[in-house]
Specification:
The structure holds two protein chains of two kinds.
Chain A: H1 2-17, E1 38-44, E2 49-50, E3 56-58, E4 67-73, E5 77-81, E6 87-88, E7 98-107, E8 111-114, E9 118-120, E10 124-135, E11 148-155
Antiparallel strand pairs in A: 1-4, 2-3, 3-10, 4-10, 5-9, 5-11, 6-11, 7-8, 7-10
Chain B: H1 3-13, E1 25-26, E2 29-34, E3 38-45, E4 53-60, E5 70-72, E6 75-78, E7 86-91, E8 97-106, E9 114-128
Parallel strand pairs in B: 2-9
Antiparallel strand pairs in B: 1-3, 3-7, 4-6, 4-8, 5-7, 8-9
Chain lengths: 156, 130
């Protein structure tokens, strides 16, 4: 009887081992689309100082500093600065000022200082340094008082 | 055009993208078909700063001349890390197609000697279908 039980158990075990697994697999597909994006975060505004000859008010002058902006993009956008249109000058300053905004970038894109638009083709992050220079010609000089100007940094 | 007409146009064109936080404006590209004399775009300006900022939305043409568009809302305060929808309705002005830039502008740190205005512009192309 014991021999029979052993033989029967062994036969059942072998039969069970030969059963095919019934599990199946299915793929779950994920899709994602990222359109061209650009983020500008102004970190610091710039500071302009006047030159010894009083004909230049610029962030390039000694003691001046560039404004800084962090830029993050997927690429496929362009970076530019607009001509300065919004300024405040002291009442004592009645002569013309030529404002010249420029920028340079470091990071994913290395752009030497320029005032022209630049295409950013690659994705990445950059530190944008924004400069502004005001100049007077001839015998004109900057006056004492507060000057203020707004530079528009555009990503499009 | 009534508010509901505007809203219907916006829904009809089907350009209602998903908002995304931590970017200044989405989408930045779009092509819209419209069966009316206007086309509508819904954009989502976002505030990536750790402070509340004032945001202005403007519409310009290819030469950066202002376009008479209906922007709702055009000026608003946006909390830190927040995003909100802005509906822009642009008239075709009789043309079969119109390209415009929709720009989100902000000066996060005003009242300083040299201010930086950050401007994110999206390019949108409207087609008038008859």
């Amino acid at each position: 009887m014991n021999l029979f039980r052993t033989a029967f158990g062994a036969a059942m075990l072998v039969a069970c081992m030969n059963q095919a697994a019934l599990a199946t697999t299915q793929n779950v597909i994920f899709n994602g689309t990222i359109t061209a994006t650009c983020t500008l975060v102004v970190a610091t505004n710039g500071t302009m100082t006047v030159s010894p000859d009083l004909q230049s008010l610029s962030s390039h002058n000694s003691g001046g500093s560039a404004g800084t902006v962090t830029l993050t993009t997927t690429g496929g956008v362009s970076l530019s600065v607009d001509p300065v249109t919004t300024t405040t000058v002291p009442a004592a300053d009645t002569t013309a000022i030529t404002w010249t905004p420029t920028y340079s970038t470091s990071g994913t894109h290395t752009i030497a200082e320029t005032g022209s638009a630049t295409s950013l083709t690659a994705p990445g992050a950059d530190l944008v340094s924004v400069h502004l220079a005001g100049t007077k010609g001839g015998s004109n000089r900057f006056a004492s008082g507060n000057y203020q100007a707004t530079v528009t940094v555009r990503c499009e | 055009m009534t508010f509901f007409g505007t809203l219907a146009t916006a829904l009809a064109v089907g350009l209602i993208p998903v908002a995304a936080v931590a970017q200044s404006m989405s989408p930045m590209r779009g092509e819209v078909n419209s069966f009316t004399d206007v086309f509508a775009v819904r954009v989502f300006p976002a505030n990536p700063y750790d402070q509340k900022i004032k945001i202005e939305v403007h519409v310009y043409d290819q030469d950066f001349q202002p376009v008479e568009a209906k922007i709702s809302p055009s000026v608003f305060q946006l909390p830190s890390q927040a995003s909100r929808p802005v509906l822009v309705v642009v008239p075709f002005d009789g043309a079969p197609d119109r390209k415009v830039r929709i720009c989100t502008e902000s000066i996060p740190f005003p009242n300083q000697q040299t201010q930086i205005k950050a401007q994110i512009c999206g390019k949108f192309f409207g087609h008038r279908k008859s």
